[in-house]
């Protein structure tokens, strides 16, 4: 079909899904939009740029302004707008392709379906996974009775959320309509109901605390008698497959990639639409978008319903609504945790919770601080973040998410206005100016607004390399040749100087090795290294001054309530300092692997100096260079445009050898660099006398106490992670229902940083 043969099309909503996926798919079909609709001039301009200035379509803020210039509409607006926009378009006689979900409320979805049928308009829904070859093969396999009677199924889908969203509204219920259940679940539940039929019973739980859920779990009993579970996550990398168990055998199918595994040869030999499980035609996401849009155009031309029409989306919409109406809390012991510490209060004049500003709120420390401020202190929290996509865990709470750069003095001034407490947790490893000028703006805004407390989070790394023996606030400064130490010391000095000379109620905290659920450097990173290969520590082992995250949060809250702490800095650590070998040993025990090895420090230094290491890292995984580049939006658009313009044969080769070739590096050797090597050998012991005396700080978590909660998190977060390292023992292996996992590819040893 040429563009003249396609109906005139309006794109309503010009966000990331359009620029990254839907528009490229349309252009591959030869279907150029006639109208672009979005209230944001910036988003309109971005999509117009992809289309070329010479043939730019009409751009308006409201579709009614150009209603006579299109016959069909692709709606990719925020989910809460799907129903009102879709209904008005259908009533105006337009054909509608609605990005999932069809609607947030079942009644609205049913009304759209009824209107489309009454007016003989095509209503299609963007449930693109119906077009995945492996998904369709599984549908045919079940319908043909090749599995016998389906007894049970287990589906797990999750990834660490990284979708490019530009507005905090997409992390609020009044904009997004729901969290991971509505977003990812619209796809997954649609498939479950398509494969297995109606759900008779459902038990649903999620981790929302008045906001949008980021993790949820469903237990289902189907009308057929089959039972099953579904887990969805925006915080964990799950296996993204469904396992189906029948009376004649079992099968595992990836939910959006064409991968299938089974222990029954006859199942793998089953042929549907000309292919078996071992010979599935390759697809990438772009193919799926293209297929659903082609069907939309064909349905309009042929006067037939879409393959995945509005009525097809009603069962999953109904089930999602049912889940939200009967929600139960998801039990996560590291969130609920033990009872909070008893902290002396000096804010008895306040009858309601404090208004609190947290910078770096999307990070590990800021995120747990926000959780406890909401759960235990009734605080009204403003979370300052630079990347909205990183704030999905914050969105579980009824907090205000403010997208702002610390260098934007006007935005920071507005964010701090009316605040009682300010916690400065943000730090930019890339830019000294961002840190120094951002601190200046935050101090000035806090003084201008008369905040009661200003707590700056520094680090005990300001004393590195750590001396052996006692370490306190009186210990000499660390090596300023390391830019991190230099920046952190300068930031501390700015707070303490403002406290002495300008009256800032500022306190500086210097936490040691902070660990706990969702900590990237001291929980997730060690776990991922242990899972992916061998971690090498020096035989001349030192002590780990570790502090569990909730002890640090106790100290942060205490700092707001102790007038004697103003103008002071405090080292914060836990009550004990276990050897590093014991720390990593507890991690591998929790994960059920045996990946820890020891070498003399000098041998590690020699290995790290080897040029072979740097060459190996690049040669083993050059794809990582591309992955870094494409994080830059202009580069990503250029690469996408180049891929779309390739000749078909060349495009197929690139698809197979770049997008579809799954090589996972799992036999790595993790060696500590010079800074880590010194840290792992140091025998410092932190002295908490000052924090106890002026803050009333008393750590509640020994390393074993904190590690017990952290181990629960590790088993939850990394249950699906491949384990190529030898298992420690059957007794220590995480519980799992895994029986016939999809095969995993491996590659040769690669050297990395521990």
How is this fold's topology laid out?
Blueprint: E1 9-12, H1 16-29, E2 35-37, H2 41-51, E3 58-60, E4 72-75, H3 82-91, E5 95-99, H4 106-118, E6 123-126, H5 133-143, E7 150-158, H6 173-176, H7 180-196, E8 199-206, E9 215-222, E10 227-233, E11 241-246, E12 249-254, E13 260-261, H8 265-269, H9 285-302, H10 310-325, E14 328-329, H11 333-336, E15 355-359, H12 364-377, E16 380-385, E17 400-403, H13 409-416, E18 421-424, H14 432-448, E19 453-457, E20 469-471, H15 483-502, E21 506-511, E22 513-515, H16 520-532, E23 533-538, E24 546-548, H17 549-559, E25 569-572, H18 580-591, E26 596-599, H19 601-609, H20 611-620, H21 623-629, H22 633-644, H23 648-659, E27 668-671, H24 674-681, E28 684-686, H25 689-695, H26 703-717, E29 751-753
Parallel strand pairs: 1-2, 1-4, 2-3, 4-5, 5-6, 7-10, 8-14, 15-16, 15-18, 16-17, 18-19, 19-21, 20-28, 21-25, 22-24, 23-26, 23-27, 27-29
Antiparallel strand pairs: 7-11, 8-9, 9-10, 11-12, 12-13
Domain Gfo/Idh/MocA-like oxidoreductase N-terminal: 8-126
Domain NAD-dependent epimerase/dehydratase: 356-572
Biased composition (Polar residues): 745-754
């Amino acid at each position: 079909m040429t563009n003249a043969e396609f109906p005139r099309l309006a794109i309503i909503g010009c966000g990331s899904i359009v620029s990254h996926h839907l528009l490229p798919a349309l252009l591959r079909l030869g279907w150029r939009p006639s109208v672009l609709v979005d209230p944001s001039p910036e988003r309109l301009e971005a999509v117009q740029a992809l289309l070329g200035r010479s043939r730019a379509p009409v751009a308006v803020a409201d579709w009614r302004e150009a209603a006579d210039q299109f016959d069909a509409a692709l709606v990719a607006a925020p989910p809460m707008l799907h129903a009102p926009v879709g209904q008005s378009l259908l009533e105006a006689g337009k054909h509608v392709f609605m990005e999932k979900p069809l609607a947030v409320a079942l009644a609205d979805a049913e009304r759209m379906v009824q209107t489309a049928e009454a007016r003989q308009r095509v209503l299609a829904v963007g449930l693109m996974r119906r077009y995945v070859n492996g998904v369709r093969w599984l549908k045919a396999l079940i319908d043909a009775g090749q599995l016998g009677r389906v007894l049970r199924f287990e589906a797990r889908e999750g990834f660490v959320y990284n979708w490019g969203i530009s507005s905090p509204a997409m992390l609020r219920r009044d904009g997004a309509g729901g969290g991971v259940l509505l977003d990812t679940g619209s796809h997954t539940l649609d498939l479950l109901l398509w494969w297995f039929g109606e759900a008779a019973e459902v038990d649903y739980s999620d981790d929302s605390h008045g906001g949008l859920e980021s993790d949820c779990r469903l237990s289902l009993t189907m009308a057929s008698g089959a039972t099953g579970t579904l887990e969805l996550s925006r915080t964990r990398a799950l296996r993204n497959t469904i396992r189906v168990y029948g009376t004649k055998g079992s099968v595992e199918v990836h939910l959006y990639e064409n991968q299938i595994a089974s222990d029954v040869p006859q199942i793998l030999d089953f042929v549907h639409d000309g292919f078996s499980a071992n010979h599935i035609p390759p697809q990438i996401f772009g193919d799926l978008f293209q297929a659903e849009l082609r069907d939309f155009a064909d349905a309009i031309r042929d006067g037939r319903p879409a393959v995945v029409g509005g009525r097809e989306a009603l069962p999953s919409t109904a089930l999602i609504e049912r889940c939200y109406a009967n929600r139960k809390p998801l039990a996560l012991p590291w969130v609920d945790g033990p009872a909070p510490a008893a902290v002396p209060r000096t804010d008895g004049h306040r009858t309601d919770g404090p208004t609190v500003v947290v910078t770096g709120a999307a990070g590990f420390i800021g995120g747990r601080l926000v959780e406890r401020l909401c759960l235990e202190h009734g605080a009204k929290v403003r979370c300052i973040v630079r990347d909205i996509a990183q704030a999905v865990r914050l969105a579980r709470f009824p907090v205000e998410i403010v997208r702002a750069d610390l260098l934007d003095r006007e935005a920071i001034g507005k964010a701090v206005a009316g605040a009682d407490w300010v916690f400065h947790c943000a730090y930019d490893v890339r830019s000294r100016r961002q840190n120094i000028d951002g601190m200046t703006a935050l101090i000035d805004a806090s003084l201008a607004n008369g905040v009661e407390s200003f707590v700056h989070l520094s680090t005990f790394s300001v004393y590195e390399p750590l001396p052996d023996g006692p370490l306190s606030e009186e210990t000499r400064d660390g090596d300023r040749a390391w830019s991190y130490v230099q920046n952190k010391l300068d930031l501390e000095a700015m707070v303490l100087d403002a406290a002495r000379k300008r009256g800032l109620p500022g306190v500086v905290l210097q936490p040691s090795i902070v660990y706990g659920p969702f900590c990237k450097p001291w929980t997730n990173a060690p776990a991922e290294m242990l899972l992916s290969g061998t971690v090498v520590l020096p035989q001349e082992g030192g002590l780990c001054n570790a502090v569990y995250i909730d002890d640090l949060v106790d100290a942060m809250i205490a700092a707001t309530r102790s007038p004697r702490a103003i103008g002071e800095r405090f080292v914060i650590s836990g009550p004990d300092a276990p050897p590093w070998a014991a720390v990593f040993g507890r991690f591998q025990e929790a994960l059920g692997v045996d990946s820890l090895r020891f070498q003399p420090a000098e041998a590690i230094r020699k290995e790290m100096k080897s040029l072979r290491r740097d060459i190996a890292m690049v040669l083993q995984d050059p794809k990582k260079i591309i992955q870094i580049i494409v994080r830059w939006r202009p580069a990503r658009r250029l690469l996408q445009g180049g891929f779309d313009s390739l000749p078909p044969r060349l495009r197929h080769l690139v698809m197979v050898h770049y997008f579809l070739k799954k090589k996972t590096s799992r036999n790595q050797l993790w060696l500590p660099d010079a800074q880590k090597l010194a840290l792992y050998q140091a025998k410092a012991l932190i002295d908490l006398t000052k924090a106890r005396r002026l803050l009333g700080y008393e750590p509640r978590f020994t390393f074993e106490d904190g590690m017990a909660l952290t181990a629960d998190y590790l088993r939850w977060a990394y249950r699906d992670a491949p384990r190529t390292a030898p298992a420690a023992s059957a007794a220590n292996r995480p519980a799992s229902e895994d029986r016939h996992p999809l095969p995993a590819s491996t590659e040769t040893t690669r050297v990395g940083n521990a």
